[in-house]
Amino acid sequence: MAIAIRLSRGGAKKRPYYRIVVSDTRSPRDGKYLEQIGTYNPLLAKDSGERVKINEDRARYWLGVGAQPSDRVARFLDAAGIKERAARSNPKKAEPGEKAKERAEERAAKQAEAEEAKKAAEAEAAAPAEEAAAEEAPAEAPAEESTEEKTEG
């Protein structure tokens, strides 16, 4: 028989209260259990001593018999100094999935195309303005010279 140390939920809707129980892995979460070895009240402050209560002697006994704690219970046992829990490292946890990466690449490509189109439009708009300015400048220059010559003479 496989034995687990896990949480069994109680309490009202949106007011959870958990028992730390030792049970057969095949039994339902809130169903039959072999022994209750503690309680967990998540509504209390994290630094409260009443938040997690564990009977250390019984927890050590069941761990010695071969009971496997759930992840949450393993954290409680580690905090109480009953069983050492190996730290987990998941470097890919914050990394987006494949679809999100594809969407980001598409978005970046569209943005690059838009910037290129904007630069091309600015270049086209600037080129005729420069040509027009270049055409107007020589036309104005002789006119100015001729007015200067008339005023001198």
From TrEMBL:
**Which GO annotations describe the biological process of this protein?**
translation
Which PROSITE patterns does the entry link to? RIBOSOMAL_S16
Give me the stretches of Acidic residues compositional bias: 132-147
- One matching Pfam family is Ribosomal_S16
Q: Does the keyword Isomerase apply?
A: no
Question: MF terms per GO, please?
Answer: structural constituent of ribosome
Q: Looking at the record, which segments are called Disordered?
A: 82-153
What cellular component terms from Gene Ontology apply here?
cytoplasm; small ribosomal subunit
Sorted keywords for this record are: Ribonucleoprotein, Ribosomal protein
Q: Where does this protein have compositionally biased stretches of type Basic and acidic residues?
A: 82-122
Superkingdom per UniProt: Bacteria
Q: Does the keyword Ribosomal protein apply?
A: yes
Q: Which NCBIfam families match?
A: S16
Q: Which family does it belong to?
A: Belongs to the bacterial ribosomal protein bS16 family.
List the protein's name: Small ribosomal subunit protein bS16
Q: Which gene encodes it?
A: rpsP
